[in-house]
Amino acid sequence: MATRSASDQIAFRYRNTDSATGITRETAKRLAEQLGVDETQAIHRALHDLAVKLLPQYQADDGPLTASQMRQIKKNVPQGTKRSVRSSLFDPESV
């Protein structure tokens, strides 16, 4: 197991009451029990879920396409061909 230095750790303080900005130790214990993990793992899972929800999950691109890239795309896509998509989401008879 890897050794942890003091700089790899943070202080975590439970709140006196549950709120939008924190939870009590009792709530953490109940959550950990529900998940079948220890309190530390429950905290890591909660932070992971929050990270997936709020942080970009892909590398930022280089911004808008250049004029050269747009010309290349237009060159490779058939032009002048009418295309349509038929949806089976709605029954055309009932609309």
Give the key terms:
mainly alpha; 95 residues; 0% strand; single chain; elongated; 3 helices; 39% helix
Largest sheet: none
As residue ranges, the low-confidence spans are none
Number of helices: 3
Structural class: mainly alpha
Topology diagram in text:
Elements: H1 25-35, H2 39-54, H3 67-76
Helix pairs in contact: 1-2
Q: What do you see in this structure?
A:
The structure is a single chain. The chain is mainly alpha-helical and 95 residues long. The chain has a domain at 10-53. It is 39% helix and 0% strand. It is built from three helices and no strands. Helix 1 packs across helix 2. The longest helix has 16 residues, at 39-54. The N and C termini lie far apart (63 Å).
Brief write-up:
The chain has 95 residues and is an all-alpha fold. Helices cover 39% and strands 0% of the residues. It has helices at 25-35, 39-54, 67-76.
